[in-house]
Amino acid sequence: MAAVDSHALKPLLLWLHAPGRSLPAEQIAGAIRAAESWLMRRALLRLTSADAGRVIADIIRSLPAAPPQQVADHVTQQLALQQVSSTYWPGDAELERALTSEPVYTKLSARRLRPVLEAIENRWRAETGGGQVQRWNLAIEHVLPRAWEQTWPVEGLEAQGERAAAVHRLGNLTLLPERLNAKVSNDRWESKRSKLQEHNTILLNSRLLASVGEGTWDEEGIRRRTAAMIEAIEQEWPVPPGHTGEVVGPRVRNASYVEVADLVVAGLLQPGTVVRLGRGEFKHVTGVVCDNGDIQVNGERHSTPSGAAWSVMKRPSNGWYDWMLEDGRRLADVRAVYLGKEQARERSSFDWERLHAVLGAIPAGSWTSYGAVAEALGTSAQAVGNHVGSCTRCPNAHRVLQYDGRVAPGFKWVDPSDTRDPVAVLATEGIVFTDGLADPDRRLHAGDLQGLAPHVIERSEGTNYYRCQLGRGAMHFEDAREKGYVGTGWLAGVDLTPYLGGSPDDWHQTFDEMVLETDQIEHAVAGVWAVGQTWMVAQGMKVGDVVLTPTGRRSYGVAVIAGPYQYVPGAPLPHQRPVDWLGIEIEHDDLGEKMRNTLRYGGTVQNLNAYAEELGAVVARLRAESTGLGPI
């Protein structure tokens, strides 16, 4: 249950094993298997588990009327009857479509993915009567390495695109007793094959080697192995015969946002679909929807519609509204169909999917205000309040309060039948209320939210703007300027190179508890924040992004990210990114009042994209004055 971040099945387990109930063992096992399949399949598709507790509670209330010999059938039938998006039991076809094409390594956290790989291993072992693997002791390893370009190269843009799409798919993942070092992990197939042979008692490895024989590991092997692993998943977590997982009504996702890949998996977009920019001067530009949901434009793949649009227009835009199909529909219209709406609303200047991601990052035991969320995302508090009050997809909406810590008047849960008191729910999460006001020490401000979810604050592909604090009181600024880097010192004794390419969720699963000990951090939220900041420095910042660094004298040095992450053990800030310093400093008083107030935030990294236009103009002016050059 920990693997799917839900304790919804505990009440059912307690009921089934209650003293004096004496249910047949096969009925208990059948009921548990059905409930586990329902929960795991939803987890694999990244569907919400918010209503899982209510569904299980309803089933428990109905169980006393079921004969002891029919308990398993009763639980199975009740789950199969679920037909709304928030509770349905996904069928085999949907599971196959998703797991065949999705980069599961980046979509699922390691905490969720490892038990799936272990379950496949145990399913195959059960076929030969072998013993089960010990849970949680194995490391996830890519067979085709994440950094494949140097040691596993292919010729041509199309082949390179296929390889990039395949690297994170289910069939390219295996388990090893220990994580390989970066050199071995990224080495050629011959070296990787010998390492897998050392651990051929693990069937995930021995069957892979048997399928390859004397050949090499490639995209076709990944495709075949993916299919075999999906079959094992369907056997481990089966659905009743004939069950298709039909959804009646609109789909509601618990993911931070709907992606183009979701539309492909749902069959609403076909790989190879041609899309065209709808803007006047760019109407000649076309893109192609790839099988993993990327949009390929001019030979380059982009993971978001907005990123694909930026690559052409070189300015921020909402790509969901900019890209159009040949029949005149926008991608936003296709997304609306997926969500059960007839047509997308007219263009909005703000993409609320980013809000959903930020809300999803607020941990239990913390609260924030509408104003803080608005500041973090660059919109207004009223707009945030209006959206949260009417949205059916906002996670953790009860953790967003008024500025003084009161629950907003008229607050409603997503489920209209949910009558819980939000104050009581927050209290169970650890927040103390005094005279109706939440504990101010548990409050997250805009900078904290940016630290918890820095990866969703980015404007799009292209130049992003950040502030990076180089030690307390800017104590390492001169060293960083002399040696050409920006960096951070959290987790100073850990080389993060093997973890590059992992999602923020992967990093939080790996480092949240570790950083509390290594950096002597007292509060869990501060640990989450530190890991998020470190992820942003190590891999969130892109080459070409602009970084402001406090100098300690009410001014900011300006640098441009020039290269990938480097680990420099023994340095004051060992996690470094090489930069090109522009030779200019921005005086604090030269910035607008709102931006000056924002820069009072004391964290390591702060996203400044809300002030991109102002910063771009200031940098261009100072460069022109000092060097005769203009914008970066």
CATH class of the largest domain: Alpha Beta
Fold-level CATH name of the largest domain: ph1033 like fold
CATH architecture descriptor of the largest domain: Roll
Give helix % range.
Answer: 40-55%
Radius of gyration: 26 Å
Task: Give the helix/strand class.
Answer: alpha+beta
Span between termini: 50 Å
- Overall mean pLDDT: 82
Total beta-strand segments: 19
Give the overall shape, derived from the CA principal axes: globular
Q: Report the β-strand fraction as a percent range.
A: 5-15%
Counted by DSSP, the helix tally is 26
Residue stretches low in confidence (pLDDT < 50, at least 5 long) are: 343-349, 458-462, 627-631
Tell me the number of structural domains: 5
Largest sheet: 7 strands, mixed
Protein architecture, described:
This protein has 632 residues and is an alpha+beta fold. It folds into five domains: 2-91, no CATH class; 97-236, no CATH class; 260-338, no CATH class; 357-444, Arc Repressor Mutant, subunit A; 457-627, ph1033 like fold, CATH 3.10.590. Strands 13, 14, 15, 16, 17, 18 and 19 form a seven-stranded mixed β-sheet that branches. It has a five-stranded antiparallel β-sheet with strand order 6-5-4-3-7. A three-stranded parallel β-sheet has the order 9-8-12.
